[in-house]
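Subject — a protein and its fold
Encoding — discrete vocabulary of local shapes:
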Amino acid sequence: MANYELMVILDPALSDADQKKSITTIGKILKDASGKKIKEDVWGEKKLAYKINGSEKGVYVLFTLELNGENIKTINGLFNLEQEIWRYMFVNLDA
């Protein structure tokens, strides 16, 4: 198990309830992949560096977690199926 940060950008057009549902879904995907969520930090709506799907803003959420790196490929596949997740990136904090 290694320590990772996961930054996710969600669709800003989502209602607060849908944002919470998406964050819960992300947490479930991580848990199902044997990940342990240590911290969740919702940064809220921020300006993007470039437009995504015609929008200049996105909702940023930062997760700190422990995860087996071999499971990231599976998580990527599941994240790609979620329409609300526009972008995501894992960073290994132990490297």
In short: The first strand starts at residue 2 and ends at 10. The radius of gyration is 13 Å. The chain is about 25% helix and 50% strand.
